[in-house]
Amino acid sequence: MQSGAGVIRRDDLTLPVVQGALSWGRGFDRGWITAQVLAKMTGSAPDPRAPMRPSFAASFLTAKRVIKTDVTLGLRPRDGLMVINSLWLEHHQDEEYSARLMSSLVFDVPGPVKVELGMVNPLSGPSEQAVRLGTWLEF
Q: C-alpha angle 27/30/35, rounded to 5°?
């Protein structure tokens, strides 16, 4: 479980942000599975036509909400190689749902470094196909 609160700057305005997440995971022989649900609320800009100046806390009355869920299955078919598949679901308030599938391979390279190469494929909603390239550092 995680939670957070803070502020962001958007268009010269300081807006409040709160978020919370629930995570679950299990390891098994030669692999793992994880799931996470995250909810985030960002205060919205005040309406300039409003009769009085809204308070910082009142910006949550018209807050923008986002819900994200991801499920990941990772496998280690052999030493030095991981296969990772993740399903990412996302819903922004007043927008359609989006779903993406990320599949990648993670290779060991000399030292504590791993290299990840994969593809992100849209399944529904506003998204584009993408290449995923990353490095991991084990310590």
A: 35
Interval 109-138 mean pLDDT: 92
Which residues pair with residue 82 across a beta bridge? 106
Angle at 4 between CA 31 and CA 2, to 5 degrees: 30
Beta bridge partners of 69: 37, 89
Angstrom CA distances, 55 to 60, 83, 113, 118, stand at: 10, 49, 48, 45
**pTM, whole model, 2 decimals?**
0.76
**DSSP 3-state assignment of 123?**
strand
Tell me if 37 sits within 8 A of 21, measured CB to CB. Answer: yes
Under 8 Å between Cβ of 16 and 45: no
pLDDT digits (tens, 9 = 90+) for 38-57: 999 888 766 556 555 555 55
Q: Which residues pair with 16 in a beta bridge?
A: 7
